[in-house]
DNA sequence: CGGCGGTCCTGTCAGC
DNA sequence: TGCTGACAGGACCGCC
């Protein structure tokens, strides 16, 4: 699930519930995530107080009172769930467990282990290997259609690949790329440098609005996400094209098309998107 | 350098 | 029912 809106939702939920709490204990049930957990991981977290929870791209940044940052990326299948009471038993793929005082339990669960957990010194976070290459935040007011146009002009790759390229714009994954292109009425395979200024304005607007709406609908189910038991509670956002091959386009009733780009499924309306 | 394809890993679902 | 293959919301690496 986790594209920018999901990560933002998780961050807001975490921020509301763990800011100001102290980590009593960190436990790794397995260390071989995408990047192996550092050997001093548990020790580095113990007794640290959470000062803030923020987001950069699809990374969750849990700020600690010693200036370090506990970084979590959910990959394709990761979740970070809070529980109010101790669990009778952990599930398969519950890899990292954090206990807080006052009591809360935070469980990092990730079947595919494409997720990542790391620790970094806070002051040089932007210089961190994970972050140096990252592009613009799409919801930043400074990320304008003019900036996007400049980005698109410098690439001949399909526009969908470009808006999913985290070095150019962050946070847009496969689902929201499809949705934003539909909103902008742009065919996903168009070479980026052939997109006009006018189309770019629609695309920037499509990206911002679809992300904002998804965050809003995530916010409304925030209580579900932090419920003390149960699964990830990712919200059900309504998609116009993603996963809807062959079903009628909401605008023109043409059956939606699907294709593959860079190994990822793309959904679009061949009538509306040119 | 840019762009594409393969790869990491496990779970789920469709089809036989 | 059981097996097989395709596919899944991400990102890195290496090759042309």
Task: Write structural notes for this entry.
This protein is α+β, with helices and mostly antiparallel strands. The protein has 2 domains: 4-127, Alpha-Beta Barrel (N-terminal domain of MutM-like DNA repair proteins); 145-268, Helicase, Ruva Protein, domain 3 (Orthogonal Bundle), CATH 1.10.8. The protein has helices at 4-18, 41-45, 145-153, 159-164, 174-184, 197-219, 222-225; strands at residues 22-28, 50-56, 59-64, 68-73, 79-83, 94-101, 104-109, 116-121, 257-261, 264-268. A 4-stranded antiparallel beta sheet has the order 1-6-7-5. A 4-stranded antiparallel beta sheet has the order 2-3-4-8. The radius of gyration is 20 Å and the shape is elongated. The protein binds a DNA duplex (16 and 16 nucleotides) through helix 5.
Helices and strands, with pairings:
Elements: H1 4-18, E1 22-28, H2 41-45, E2 50-56, E3 59-64, E4 68-73, E5 79-83, E6 94-101, E7 104-109, E8 116-121, H3 145-153, H4 159-164, H5 174-184, H6 197-219, H7 222-225, E9 257-261, E10 264-268
Antiparallel strand pairs: 1-6, 2-3, 3-4, 4-8, 5-7, 6-7, 9-10
Helix pairs in contact: 1-6, 3-6, 5-6
The protein binds a DNA duplex (16 and 16 nucleotides) through helix 5.
Give the H and E element order.
HEHEEEEEEEHHHHHEE
Q: Can you identify the CATH class of the largest domain?
A: Alpha Beta
Radius of gyration: 20 Å
Instruction: Report the sheet-strand fraction.
Output: 15-25%
Helicity range of the residues? 25-40%
**Count of spatially separate domains:** 2
How many helical elements?
A: 7
Look at the structure and give the mean pLDDT: 90
Using the 3D structure, state the CATH architecture of the largest domain.
Alpha-Beta Barrel
The SS-based structural class is alpha+beta
Write out the strand line-up for the largest beta sheet, numbering strands in chain order.
Answer: 1-6-7-5
